[in-house]
Design a protein that fits this description.
Layout lengths: L1 E6 L3 H12 L5 E4 L26 H5 L2 H6 L4 E3 L3 E6 L5 E5 L3 E10 L3 E3 L15 E2 L2 H4 L7 E5 L3 H11 L4 E5 L9 H8 L4 E4 L2 E9 L2 E9 L4 E4 L4 E3 L3 E3 L34 E3 L11 H22 L2
Parallel strand pairs: 1-2, 1-6, 2-3, 6-17, 8-15, 9-10, 9-15, 10-11
Antiparallel strand pairs: 4-5, 5-6, 7-16, 12-13, 13-14
Length: 313
């Protein structure tokens, strides 16, 4: 039986494994069907990770993490976990694609979440080259420039507000003439002078060249097109939470989740199920930053040590 099973091999999972093994747990497996690193490896520019003073790609940032995180005994299993369930004795069963099953005393879920794509022409082509889903990550690259934001919920409006402090102008594009965001947030947006509302409109396409985005074509409800000459477009149309591994056969979840399917945790990354922890973008109110995911992983790893120790032999 494992001491700890970690599901997911991004910054949270890797860091959790390093802290757990360095802290004394002997049998710790991290399950990631591909190479470790997580979705951050797809980012083309990162300049806000502490200790890394130059701009690097996500792949460059994560290159040394696996070796460091595994030198204390963490084992990477290149396998896909399909489900985690609870055994009658309080331990957990890890179901692996191909009918393999493994038991573990504790589990950390680090499967993350993925931004939804809006589906407009050029979105995939220019993703990471002007199309972004993280204003905190990429907003600074557009300092003093005009950008566009797509979305009508709290996240879209809050990110538009954030960008308005960096960029010369923000075009906020929404398919309706009302927002789903809180009234206070909407009022703040309406009172921000360098945010222009582009309502009853959707993005028809994003265009550019090999260097990146050059503009966004919108179309309104009457069919009128508009060409916004911006080098960046930020898309906030929701998240797909990767919580299938905690979904049980009856449709319930192994632990408590919110209405969006994000796992509810306390400050120690403990879930409502004893011995089950969650870290990184899968958990509620995650800042969706590499440094925060790593911090979550460290906290969860330390928590797993304490939990397994409390079980005794």
């Amino acid at each position: 039986m494992l001491d700890l099973a970690i599901i997911g091999g991004g910054p949270a999972g890797l860091t959790a494994g390093m802290y757990a093994t360095r802290g004394g747990l002997k049998k710790v497996n991290m399950y990631e069907k591909g190479m470790p690193g997580g979705q951050i490896t797809k980012s083309s520019e990162i300049e806000n990770y502490p200790g890394i003073s130059k701009v690097v790609t996500g792949m460059e940032l994560m290159e040394s993490w696996p070796e460091q995180c595994m030198k204390f005994g963490l084992k990477h299993e290149m396998k896909e976990v399909t489900k985690v369930s609870a055994n009658s004795d309080g331990t957990f069963k890890i179901f692996i694609a191909g009918s393999e099953e493994v038991d573990s005393k504790s589990v950390i879920i680090c499967t993350g979440s993925n931004p939804r794509r809006a589906g407009f022409e050029g979105e995939d082509k220019f993703f990471g080259k002007g199309v972004s889903t993280c204003a905190t990550c990429d907003g600074f690259f557009y300092k003093g420039k005009e950008v566009a934001v797509l979305g009508g919920g709290d996240t879209a409006l809050e990110e538009a507000s954030y960008l308005s402090n960096i960029c010369s102008k923000v075009y906020l594009i929404h398919r309706r003439d009302t927002f789903r965001a809180s009234p206070a947030t909407v009022k703040r947006i309406e009172n921000t002078k360098n945010i222009e509302l582009v309502l009853n409109s959707k993005i028809q396409k994003v265009y550019g060249n090999e260097l990146g985005v050059e503009g966004v074509i919108t179309i309104d409800k009457d069919g009128k097109e508009r060409d916004l000459k911006v080098p960046g477009i930020f898309v906030f149309v929701g998240m797909n939470v990767n919580n299938n591994v905690i979904k049980q056969n009856d449709g319930s979840f192994l632990c408590d989740v919110n209405e969006s399917g994000e796992i509810l945790v306390d400050l120690s990354m403990k879930t409502s199920k004893a011995g089950l922890f969650a870290a990184g973008d899968i958990r509620v109110k995650a800042p969706k930053q590499v440094v925060c995911a790593a911090g979550d992983g460290a906290t969860a790893g330390i928590g797993a040590i304490s939990y397994v120790d409390s079980l005794g032999d």
